[in-house]
TrEMBL record:
Family of this protein: Belongs to the peptidase A1 family.
Active site: D79, D279
Gene3D superfamilies found in the cross-reference section: Acid Proteases
One of the Pfam families matching this protein, by short name: TAXi_N
Keywords: Aspartyl protease, Hydrolase, Protease, Repeat, Signal
Protein's recorded name: Aspartic proteinase Asp1
Phylogenetic classification of the source organism: Eukaryota, Viridiplantae, Streptophyta, Embryophyta, Tracheophyta
Signal peptide: 1-29
GO biological process, one term: proteolysis
Annotated ranges, domain Peptidase A1: 61-406
Organism whose genome encodes this protein: Trapa natans
Length: 432
């Protein structure tokens, strides 16, 4: 669920992503063989990857992955709110933001329409292709009217596990060759998107079906910038993690839970029944109009009598305050604000401290990193974005259908051995 307009306009969570497929004829002999079974699975481990980026001013967290043979490094925007991983692709490309030598180039590795992953990205109830040996095309449309045309391909991804095994599974992803990003939305700054939703096309699902990892992933976003991403359950602490059940019928392929209640200064309030999506593809946090209004009221009351005055906001951050002198960091002002708290079932609380909802701008004002989701087309849904997941390890356990979190120092990678071990190839992918 990617946000657009990084640092320019209010980021729009791309919640209602539409995936369309069309097809045209290609020769079957152009394709390498797609196997119907996976080879024997290795001992499961986990993958831990360092992240780059920040909430402000960049507005995204990214990971570098080695793709292809010979391997080439691509920087991908990490998005737990969408399924499809895709790279800007030289097929050739229209609207790509990267130089041609940095684009992915397909090499007779297109995915057939008969592949189950082709139907996994199509609209329910429609036929993606007329013939099973057609290539699998897609169009991704986002809420900000941006769209991406592409074709499904598969290639090798290089990973190293915490058990020191190096693996090169062949995974399916999108090759996007036509990017239409309407003004004033900024074009994507990375080479593509790493889709980590819980649908069949997701990279995490593919790795799990190949027997490489547990169907668990998580991330730890640092307020200092960077952090880490992990696939598998090795980095998860054995205690202190708070868990809530996923809402499987809320929105397909999204990590959601609810209902939740927005507490009023740690006490029950009148904002209840919130359905909450955890989405690393959204820079900021979004609440529906009722919850957003309640938050503004809380903040206004908390700031009464304090030396902060309303200030002119930025395009993407409309609610701001200024002090007697410019602020250098959130640490200069967070003592004047109080935590926000979401209470889930069984009184499990998700606490959002001031440093997880405030942003100090380049001009020295402090701004609210929570926006009105109803105004940007999210209806009654609520999104916990990057800003409110900082300094927490957030875990998406697809096997147990639960979402967890625990406070963590995200500025350091977990202490796992890093030397390379034996490499194993995975030349085929399963019927996923």
């Amino acid at each position: 669920m990617k946000c657009s307009g990084r640092g320019a306009v209010a980021p729009l969570p791309l919640l209602f992503t539409l995936l369309f497929t069309a097809a045209f004829r290609v020769c079957r002999s152009d394709f390498p063989r797609i196997g119907r079974r996976a080879p024997a699975a290795p001992p499961r481990g986990s993958v831990i990857l360092p992240l780059s980026g920040n909430v402000y001013p960049l507005g995204y967290y990214s990971v570098s992955l080695n793709v292809g043979r010979p391997a080439k490094v691509y920087e991908l925007d990490v998005d737990t709110g969408s399924d499809l991983t895709w790279l800007q692709c030289d097929a050739p490309c229209t609207g790509c933001t990267k130089p041609r030598d940095q684009l992915y180039k397909p090499k007779n590795n297109l995915v057939h329409c008969e592949d189950p992953l082709c139907s996994a990205i199509s609209i329910s109830g429609t036929e993606p292709c007329k013939n099973p040996d057609d290539q699998c095309d897609y169009e991704v449309e986002y809420a900000d009217k941006g769209s991406f045309l592409g074709v499904l391909v598969y290639d090798y991804f290089a990973f190293q596990l915490t058990n020191n095994t190096r693996l090169s599974p062949r995974l399916t992803f999108g090759c996007s060759y036509n990017l239409d990003t309407p003004s004033p939305t900024a074009p994507p700054p990375t080479a593509g998107i790493l889709g980590l939703g819980n649908g069949k096309a997701s990279i995490i699902t593919q790795l799990y079906r190949l027997g490489m990892i547990r169907n668990v992933l998580g991330h730890c976003l640092s307020t200092k910038g960077g952090g880490f991403l992990f696939f598998g359950d090795d980095p998860i602490p054995s205690s202190n993690v708070l868990w809530v059940p996923m809402s499987p019928t809320l929105l397909a392929k999204h990590y959601a839970s609810g209902p939740a209640e927005l507490l009023n200064r740690q006490k029950p309030g009148n904002v209840k029944g919130l359905q909450v999506i955890f989405d690393s593809g959204s820079s900021y946090t979004y609440f529906n109009s009722k919850a957003y209004g309640a938050i503004l009221n809380q903040l206004t009351g908390d700031l009464n009598g304090k030396p902060l005055k309303n200030a002119t906001g930025e395009k993407s951050l409309p609610v701001c305050w200024k002090g007697t002198k410019p602020f250098n960091s959130v640490n200069d002002v967070n003592a004047q604000f109080k935590p926000l708290v979401l209470s889930f079932a069984n009184n499990v609380e998700y606490k959002i401290p001031p440093e997880a909802y405030l942003i100090v701008t380049k001009g020295g004002n402090v701004c609210l990193g929570i926006l009105n989701g109803t105004e940007v087309g999210l209806a009654d849904f609520n999104i916990i974005g990057d800003i409110s997941m900082q300094s927490k390890m957030v875990i998406y356990d697809n096997e147990r259908q639960q979402i967890g979190w625990v406070s963590a120092d995200c500025s350091h990678l977990p202490n796992w051995a890093s030397q390379a071990g034996e490499e194993a190839d995975y030349p085929y992918h399963e019927d996923l």
